[in-house]
Specification:
Oligomer: single chain
Mean pLDDT: 93
Distance between the termini: 39 Å
Radius of gyration: 14 Å
Low-confidence stretches: none
Number of helices: 0
Strand content: 35-45%
Structural class: mainly beta
Helix content: under 10%
Length: 128
């Protein structure tokens, strides 16, 4: 069974760039039918999809976060990363990396922990 593990700083200052890494257990990256995604949940709010990338480097961003987001693969290390620039306290959340079988741009898409494989999540606080 695939395992995903998030890593990164737990505290980021406002205006800085939040940088997170997801390490995927070896042997589970293929096939190219999954969307490797970052999803977050702010306190008291629902799950919010941020970005996804496929093995052939098709990339998708939530429109409202696109200007600040960057997702990429490091295949050699079996990792994919998220950069979120110009962080604000509104970016405070638990961030999850997810292997999702659903296309995040489909009209029916909604993130749910009952679908796909999820990391345990990492709490990130944006505060001075």
């Amino acid at each position: 069974q695939v395992q995903l593990q998030e890593s990164g700083p737990g505290l980021v200052k406002p205006s800085q760039t939040l940088f997170l890494t997801c390490t995927v257990s070896s042997g589970f990256i293929t096939p190219n039918s999954y969307y490797w995604s970052w999803i977050r949940q702010s306190p008291g709010k629902g799950l919010e999809w941020i970005a996804s990338i496929t093995l052939d480097h098709r990339i998708y961003y939530k429109p409202s976060l696109q200007s600040r987001s960057s997702i990429s693969w490091d295949m050699r290390r079996g990792q994919f990363t998220l950069q979120l620039s110009s962080a604000t306290p509104e970016d405070t959340a638990t961030y999850y990396c997810v292997r999702d079988p659903w296309n995040p741009t489909s009209k029916a898409y909604s993130p749910t922990k009952t679908r796909g494989s999820w990391g345990q999540g990492i709490q990130v606080t944006v505060s001075s």
